Each structure stands twice: as structure tokens, then as C-alpha cells.
Amino acid sequence: MSFLAPDNIIEVNNANIYQQASLVLSGLNFTIQKGEFVYIIGRTGTGKSSLLKTLYADLPLRKGQVHVAGFEVNQLLHREVPFLRRKLGIVFQDFQLLPDRNIADNLTFVMRATGWKNTQKIQQRITDLLQQVDLPGINKKFPHQLSGGEQQRVVIARALINEPMVLLADEPTGNLDPDMSEEILKLFQRINNSGTAILMATHDYEVLEKFPARVLKCANGVIEDLKVFP
Ligand SMILES: Nc1ncnc2c1ncn2[C@@H]1O[C@H](COP(=O)(O)OP(=O)(O)OP(=O)(O)O)[C@@H](O)[C@H]1O
Prior knowledge:
Blueprint: E1 8-19, E2 22-33, E3 37-41, H1 48-55, E4 63-68, E5 71-72, H2 81-85, E6 88-91, H3 103-113, H4 119-132, H5 148-159, E7 166-170, H6 178-193, E8 197-201, H7 205-210, E9 214-219, E10 222-225
Parallel strand pairs: 3-8, 3-9, 6-7, 7-8
Antiparallel strand pairs: 1-2, 1-4, 4-5, 9-10
Helix pairs in contact: 5-6
The protein binds adenosine-5'-triphosphate.
């Protein structure tokens, strides 16, 4: 039996991360506290995405223990995974909005899938979320009518629907120019200031310099806790 310390949102103990038969990262030990902002850096192929996928139970953990938002990820049954995902917000590099639905319908789709039933409450939550990401009133627009940065902010709104305790972001600025990236980071800071922990994989050293925070570096099959960049 093991417990998540009350101030920790993520605990990783002696974990190995695999992709198929290959060991990508080994002997991982780190914790992330509630409300922390942490980057994962490392060259391409060093395992940043694989680590995030393990945290949201998209890759099985074969060795070690991982606790995320009160769930022991390595013990989760397949049917329990959605309960973990509801405690998380997940943001990827490619925006992954449904192209044939407007923004309100994109958000409603996820809300209904995660148990929201009351139409009035759904509409109110959409208004609040779009306000939160500085895109009020874009409900009826379609994804292709928005810039990349705007689409990414809608994705972030979608990730915030169920008030996650932690946001996992995989290269969220990977497809954006520097100004748009800065907007996304400012938004992340605001979200973080309101108490949501953020774990963000990135290659973007400009972002690290402008918005310094604790850094976990993936290299040579292990993770080094640099505390702060550089
Ligand atoms: N679906 C997969 N099947 C098999 N091997 C994979 C798969 N996805 C990734 N890998 C391998 O696992 C290793 C780690 O990849 P991963 O995507 O986690 O790295 P990354 O640091 O996130 O890279 P990038 O910055 O390019 O996204 C790489 O050697 C990669 O080739």
C-alpha cells in the first residue's frame, strides 16, 4: 500500500518508461507539488512525450510507481482511466479540435462525454472558459477561422473544463510563432497562479528564458532535476 503525500500532485518512484520493448527512461524519481510549474526539456527522442503519456495512463508502466492526482496509475484498470483523465488537463502541440464543429460544440462534446448534462450550465461554463482564455464570444466560429494561437487557447479552455488539478502540456507552443508562444505562456502562468500545477514538455528555450521555472531534463535515459533553468 502506498500513499500520495498531501502536497504532491505527482509522485514518481523508481519508474522505468518503455516504448514497446525499448527502455526510454529509467530509474525516475521525482515529485511535483500542488500548484507547481515544471518544464520537461530534452532533445528530440529523449522521452518527454513518453513520460507524459505514462502519467496520463496512455503508456503502461512496467516498473515502479506513479501517483497522479490521487490515482496510483500503475494499478488503474482500463475502465478507471477516464476518472484519472478528468482530474487532468491535457494539451498537445497539434490542436486537435474537431474541424467540422464550432467552438461551442467542440467544448460541449467534451463536456457531455465527461458527464455534463444541464444545457444551461454547459453554456455558462463555455462562456466562463472562453472568457478565461481571452476569447469571449467566439462560440460560433469554426477552428479554421481562428489563428494557431487562438486554436491553442481553445484547446486550453477545453483542458480546463473540469477544473483539473494539473495540466500536462506536450510542446504546446511547438506550432506557434514567438509572440503567440508568449501569449500561451502568460495564460499558463495565470492558470498556474490560480492553483493548477503545470507540467510542460518543451524544446523552446526562448520560453524557458522568459518564463523561468523548475526544469526536469531528459538525457541519456535518465531525468535530471535542474531545479531552475539553465
Ligand atoms: N509509438 C511508438 N512506438 C515505438 N517507439 C516509439 C513510439 N513513440 C516514440 N517512440 C520512441 O521512443 C523514444 C522516445 O520518444 P518520445 O516521443 O517520448 O521523445 P520526445 O522527447 O518526446 O521527442 P520529441 O521531442 O521529438 O517529441 C524515441 O526513441 C522514439 O523513437
